[in-house]
Write a structure and sequence with these properties.
Elements lengths: L2 H13 E4 L4 E4 L16 H17 L2 H6 L4 H17 L10 H10 L18 H6 L14 H13 L11 H15 L2 H4 L2 H20 L13 H64 L1
Antiparallel strand pairs: 1-2
Helix pairs in contact: 1-2, 1-7, 2-4, 7-8, 7-10, 8-10
Length: about 290
């Protein structure tokens, strides 16, 4: 994952905050959010929606941006959902029958043309809504905001990384905190027993390890445990290779078997033709003798 991805997340985290005393959201710097405040952002959900649209425009507004993040675009959508879920959970929910995330999805994502606008020159993912629909299982995940702290620490670790010098000295403190939070989540049975939760942990650990591999000119970042989902993916991958190998060998075995039958049949047919030919010659010789 590129450093500028996490820079964008840090920008929104810093400039769209929740005031716990006044129990509302506020912009510290509203300049980059104005274009998304079509209704003036007079209420909290409008402000959160502006932050969400900022992300999608920053990463997927056109084909050039989309191609830039093509290898990681679904991870980015996953991170947007973590941020969105966390921001919504800060607000008191007066309707226990529907989560804030489900309400936001219905009201803004399904109800707004801004999420339905086409991504220019991108065929398979024609709109922001299409991207979100690929991660719509997040709507059913409870406590997704639990991952926010680890995600924020990962963002801070990346933004403090000295990319030019490949030096992780400055970001080591944040990396240690991330590793501690990650291990806490990875040991929580309520999280590790759920496949959707494990996928999120896997995404976090993958991006952390990518950064860790970049620290060639400094002290190494702390190791983190292998996530269960990663282990299962490895097993699945190995099983898949084994299954494919078995199928290929079976095909070759079947071909050899049928070729063997064909060969035996050919020999049998050849012997029969040879015997018939000999019989015809014998009859022919007998007739010659009788004529003489």
């Amino acid at each position: 994952m590129d450093k500028d991805v996490f820079n964008n997340f840090i920008y929104v985290m810093t400039n769209l905050e929740y005031d716990s005393n006044k129990k509302n959201y506020k912009f510290k710097d509203a300049d980059n959010f104005k274009e998304y405040c079509t209704g003036g952002c007079d209420n909290d959900l409008d402000k959160i929606n502006a932050g969400c649209l900022y992300f999608f425009n920053a990463f997927f507004k056109n084909s050039d941006l989309f191609s830039k993040y093509a290898n990681n675009y679904m991870n980015i959508v996953e991170y947007i959902m973590i941020w969105l879920s966390y921001m919504l959970t800060l607000k008191e929910n007066n309707n226990s029958s529907v989560s804030h995330l489900q309400h936001f999805y219905t009201t803004y994502i399904n109800g707004s043309d801004q999420y339905k606008n086409s991504i220019i020159s991108v065929e398979d993912n024609s709109s922001y809504k299409d991207l979100l629909n690929k991660k719509n299982y997040f709507l059913d995940i409870k406590d997704i905001s639990k991952f926010y702290e680890a995600f924020k620490l990962l963002c801070e670790t990346y933004t403090e990384f000295d990319e030019k010098k490949k030096d992780c000295t400055k970001c080591l403190g944040k990396a240690i905190k991330f590793a501690e939070k990650y291990e806490e989540l990875n040991k929580d049975p309520n999280i590790t027993n759920d496949s959707s939760h494990n996928k999120i942990l896997y995404t976090l650990s993958t991006d952390y390890n990518k950064l860790k591999d970049k620290c060639s000119n400094s002290a190494s970042l702390p190791e983190i445990s292998i996530n269960i989902y990663a282990q299962m993916s490895g097993v699945t991958s190995s099983s898949s290779i084994a299954n494919k190998s078995f199928i290929v060998l079976s095909i070759f075995g079947a071909i050899a078997f049928f070729l063997g039958i064909s060969y035996k049949y050919s020999l049998f047919g050849f012997r029969k033709r040879f015997q018939k030919q000999k019989l015809r010659e014998k009859i022919k010789n007998i007739k010659k003798k009788m004529n003489h």
